[in-house]
Amino acid sequence: MNILRTIRVSLRALNRNKMRSFLTALGIIIGVGAVIATISIGQGAKREVEKRFESMGTNLLFVRPGSHSYRGRQGGGGTYQNLTPDDAKAIAEKADAVQYVSPSVSTRSQVIYGNKNWNTSIYGVGDKYPEIRNWEVEEGIFFDEQMVRSGQKVCVLGSEVNENLFEGADPIGQIIRIKKIPFRVIGVLKSRGESGGWFNRDDMITIPYTTAQRRLIGMIDRIQSIDISAVSAAKTTEATEQIEEILRIRHKIAPGAEDDFYVGNMSEIAEGAAQSREIMTILLGAIASVSLLVGGIGIMNIMLVSVTERIREIGIRMSVGAREKDILLQFLAEAIVLSILGGFLGIGLGIVGSKLISRFTELQTLVSMGSVALAFLFAGSIGVFFGFYPARKASKLDPIEALRYE
Amino acid sequence: MENNHLIQLENVKKIYKVGETQVNALRGLSYNINEGDFLAIMGPSGSGKSTLMNILGCLDKPTEGKYFLEGEEVSTLDKNKLARIRNKKIGFVFQTFNLLSRTTALENTELPLLYSSMSKKKMRELASKSLSIVGLEGRELHRTNQLSGGEQQRVAIARALVNNPSLILADEPTGNLDTKTGKEIMDIFKKLNQEKNITIILVTHEPELALIARRRVHLRDGQIIKKEESA
User: Fold this and answer.
1) Residue A201 pLDDT class (50, 70, 90 cuts)
2) Are the Cβ atoms of B57 and A319 closer than 8 angstroms?
3) Number of structural domains chain A divides into
4) Do A400 and B99 make contact, defined as CB atoms within 8 angstroms?
């Protein structure tokens, strides 16, 4: 019997028991649907992360203090402030693969305006910071080089802070208090509509780093990190090398000794974040595929019942010349057709399900062709795997006994 | 082969093992059947009729002895080759009809052709022709459960005929039918034998029916005890 004919025969057999066939396929439908929907959640999250990092710019670099040893005492990364504003200046002057440089320090503080207060992050940065981070100022201006040099008490608000403190009133020119020190609001950053997450620019206040050093942190000659943009995304590696060279000389690090600073870039972080989402996706998919496995067991169960019910039919077919192979293929085809039809419906269910998830929850979903293909393939192989044993059992029947079976 | 017998049985034995005990179903049976014969195998139950039938129909193999069908020794063939022989050379008609339920007469008749490579169109054509031979023209699309017992047996005969076999084996074909319908079925066999020269082997325990056959063998305890021939 050729394949098409086998499929037609199996479709007819399945059609005879519509309700049972549907219920059997339901296990696969739900399994495939669950796999596709959960993977779509994971991939949606991964995509979200990638998008966020993309808008921040892949040419972004940063320098943080690394591990250091001081008189034999070993310390971990970031435990010791060994970067100075002069380091930042040197990088800006000497590294030609670097576009902008901004020293930065940060802290958290309660911010007060009138009778309202709000706890937020305070970033002390240089005047080039908006260019580095790809930020736009919505109202007013960002502080300029002169304001930074002279350490003026000015600030630029994130949109969420603006909303919470001013509630729609014009903030420009108003005085707010950060750690009881008055700051004049000179600008508001454009909102990105982010809620939570990393580097949320909406819930923060930027002030000149010099002001932050003197007034808020009390650490004049040290900075916590240096934010840098390379001239282009392609130049990040070159920029990294130049920065390392400059800092090694400035920090008097002997050849072969370990750096006491760390130069990182955004694409590294983005990759890491995306990877953690990937792991989540795999985990979710694995859990969902358990239901697919259960569906497969359902198919095996029904196929075994079906073989027992149709022993006489098998006997008849054998008596008119069906070989073992023909019977095997017939029942195997039924199992595969069931699971593939279930797979198709499950793909539909999964796509609809993930659309509903992204509509009614905050989760973003993304149905990729890969996950559809994977689920489909998985369903097909489950049909083969769980259909084989019943089909083999059918094909091994003795025609004489099968014909006599009541 | 030195002769042109359709079937040659040489000292065929069949021994079943049921637990510890051995059952000798056939005890060294030798017999030849010519092409175009109409043979009735008779005997009480337990005489080995069914066992002989299964061996002749290539559903089973003898424990000992040789079975030649059209000069080919089939007693040594494996399962798949036996299936091919059943498909090409043998047609079965059973007491209980053994049709596929909820399936049309035409599809039932086509069943053996499904296992030979043949176009759908050719299958339809052969099956329709076969059904018209047994007088079921116009009933092709009736389902099994819409047909009377006599009609069902006619479909079974049509199915046995469809691949133009060398041999039709009928096992108590009228056992589940009333006398009148049984007579009609026997007439079909007779017609097929006379007009189409198809070899027919009939298993029955009704002497009346056996008289239609040209030759009769009586079995008892796995051995032929009597051979008869009509004039």
Assistant:
1) low
2) yes
3) 2
4) no
